[in-house]
Amino acid sequence: MALRSSTRLGVAMFAPALIYIAAVVGLPLCLAFLYSVGDVRVGSVGYHFVGLDNFRSVLRSPTFRRSLANSFVFTIVTQLIVIVCANLLALALRDRFRGRGFVRFLVLLPWVAPISLGAIGWKWLLDSIYSVVNWVLVHLHLVRPFDAPMWLGEPRLAMASVILVHAWRMLPFSTVILLAGLTSIPKDIPEAAAVDGAGFWRSYFRIVLPMMTPIINVAVLFGVIFTFTDMTVVYILTRGGPYDSTQVLPSLAFFTGILGSDLSEGAAISVFLVPILAVIAILMLRVAQKAEVV
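Now predict its structure.
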């Protein structure tokens, strides 16, 4: 009786979470798969099964192929910047110093503040006419007054801009994770290495970094998922332009399905995210598991 009561109690406690996940995640996912194999548009009546026609149409689209490539570039470059900078910030914030709490607050501010507010601020900073960045570059005589770069108007500069802004957004999240992993390492291990003559960088790369590998994998996994599925920065800064040079899969799905009223093709684009993210998650978890075993 006691075992049955505890089992029922466990089911009852898990039920709200399961209902929430089913309603918020499961239902939209099922609808996306259903729409992707049908002919559904905004305002249409009824449902017509079309099989894989939407996927064939998407794969033939040059915009989709470019958006897929942009998604990988956007994700990989952003995570490289974030992991390197997060490691440096975690090392800087590990030891006590005057004002450390205020500095930690400043580091966390981009993650706490609404991303729409931060992206609008960056859009003003990178504006082609009122750009503060260009004003500083001009007054430092690094660029000519009427030859300042158009950060959001040139394809390469636009991609670099959205990457840097998203890295600014994701940096606090990874910093907190790596800082927690860094502070959990016993201090006697690096101290023993220092007594044996190991310098700071040798101790970091030979001892600290290998011990933090599982934590770094977790930070990279969440960062990749958040970046690959995010469209806020792209939508606010460039809306995928210029010439689809910053278009990524989530933004393309939104523009196609919602603004373009083609829900089926937009759902087909979204479904492409599922196997990609599943493969990435499996690979990252295997790497983390091997690191823990070693």
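The mean pLDDT is 84.
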